[in-house]
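Researcher: Please generate the 3D structure of the following complex. Treat every line as part of one assembly.
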Amino acid sequence: MRIIVHTGKGGVGKTSVSAATALRCAEMGLKTIVISTDTAHSLGDSLEMKIGPEPIQLYDNLWAQEVDARYSMDKYWWRIQNYLINVFKQREGLDDIVAEEITILPGLEEGAHLLWINQYFETQEFDVLIVDAAPTAETLRLLSLPDASRWWFERTMNLMKGMTGRLLRPLAKPLFGTDLPEQEELDSVQRLFDTLSKVAGLLADPALSTMRLVMTPEKMVIKETQRTYTYLNLYGYPTDSVICNRIIPPEVVDPYFAAWKDSQRKNLELIGEAFGGLKVLKAPMFSSDIGGLDDLRRLADALYENTNPSQIMTAEVGTHTIEHDLSTGDYLLRIPLPFADKTDLDLYRSSDELTVRVGPYRRNIVLPYTLWKLETGPASFVEGALQIRFVNKQA
Amino acid sequence: MPDSAPPRPLVIKVDATHYPMDVFGDRLISEGFQVVKASSIKEGIKLARRCKPDLVVTIDDADSGVDAIEWLELQHSDNEASLAMTPLLILADISRLERLRVHELPDRVKVLQRPLELRDFIQTAKHMLAIWDL
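Model: Done. Output below.
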């Protein structure tokens, strides 16, 4: 199975690209499903078919689904949140609003999309799963959810589980004004977080998943796409190509478009330089809105010609690596973060976890056991990658 | 102090589709309905006799074995008058609509074509129970 996630700034044509890619895969004989995670669903318009919250077969080998963004992922979480609010209020003396704010797990509702990805992986019903993702910020929030949730899970669930939970249970109501959540509810949340972690693993596996950055050749869009690429690298999600959409074709010679064409040409050069390691797929601007099978086929022809869109476009995709220096016993952890500004980068560690912050996004990398006892040595930012040395003092 | 909240409408949902996530059931719950689920027609009839629901929702799906016509016949001919008169909402594929002969169905039965918007589904369910959003 292959999972392809199309993301990018709003309005660059992610949905058309997703629909065209899905149609091409289906017509090549691959059993394909395309799912939309954007709350403003438009996949149905692009395919000119009505699509609902359940998967529906549209044509031979092609299924589609517009995932319900209000799906009640948090149906058990609200009780746990309620309990935590009361604990924070009583024990820490926080007021209502602050207590409520620190118990919100951002992006939980959108996490429903990740659950569907897990389902399709589990059932192996399809050869290709194409995700028409929401605009960049929402998608990044979604993709960082498994990481953010682990912090929550470990620090808050321990309050309620095991011995502490059993001892506290009879005292919870008089102390905190609310009952402890039932074991069944805690188990459900545990399963939920386990699934989120699993999906993060699936999306970070370059043999299985691929992120594709859709953009138009405009300066602002390129800047945002560069930032997205950095954040995807931060979370270890492999990107194999950029899709440059709506390029004014050479046959347009109207002087009205001359300046625009010139600016697109310069920006295309910039894209080639900026994303040098990645394959750049190009599609022209069509004379009207893309809709229906014929238009989608034309778009797929432009992007993929006769090749299979589900194949990996760039062989070497960046994920973090750990190298062992046999002469010193040191280890070197390398995290590719292209386009990151080193002044906007933080790094701190506990014994078993390394936290990297780039801009507003934070990633906790669980360190392998071999690195736990090693001291963190110097960190440097070299050729678009953060390098951290773990020093073996016993050597 | 007695609980002054009005009782939540009870829905029996007959659904044998293989999706582990219950999109329709969960949306009904989030809209304030109580939902009891049955995974076959036999189980659904047994539950309906016992619980006396306000509404039955059936996912008509040939692949999973729930046939809305079979349900309709069993419900309509049930000895318990309350079950025979319970409103029924059928969610059916376009390929099954002709067989359901929608225009001949009694007023208490409504059919929505899948795929459908969840908003339409909830509005129809509320409309059938005369619940209005204010």
